[in-house]
User: What shape does this take?
Amino acid sequence: MSELPFDPAAIRLLAEILSETGLTEIEIAEQDRRICIKRAPAPITMLAAGAPALAPASMPPVAATPIEPEPEDPAKHPGAVLSPMVGVAYLAPEPGAPNFVTVGQTVEAGQTLLLIEAMKTFNQIKAPKAGTVSRILVATGAPVEFGEPLLIIA
Assistant: This one.
């Protein structure tokens, strides 16, 4: 049996870091060795006001009444605002400040909807069109992937 290139305790530690931080991937390279640990992100269920809600596994899902009927995949909705980058989403300009937008709010084209922090830079995500925010699909501090739906503008 061959020896593992990395200490199993170090691999467990990296897996714990993934769980604690909410990251989906960690990659480490040293000299001629490389290890990449990935995990699927946990699904986030959102309430109408945008706060995350976790339902116990034993309870059947409760149907919410959205502002408008929406397709199964929010990314395919014509009013979906997709993430242009990988980073961390922030719904407010700073901790304790009100969110840029709320569900039911009317927005103008070009209005700031949220921020995505990528590589220590906060990037404004602006409304591509005018309309009403019908759903906010991310929570403050949540990691987002490129192309992930962030919110829906009807």
Remarks:
- DSSP finds one helix and ten strands in the chain.
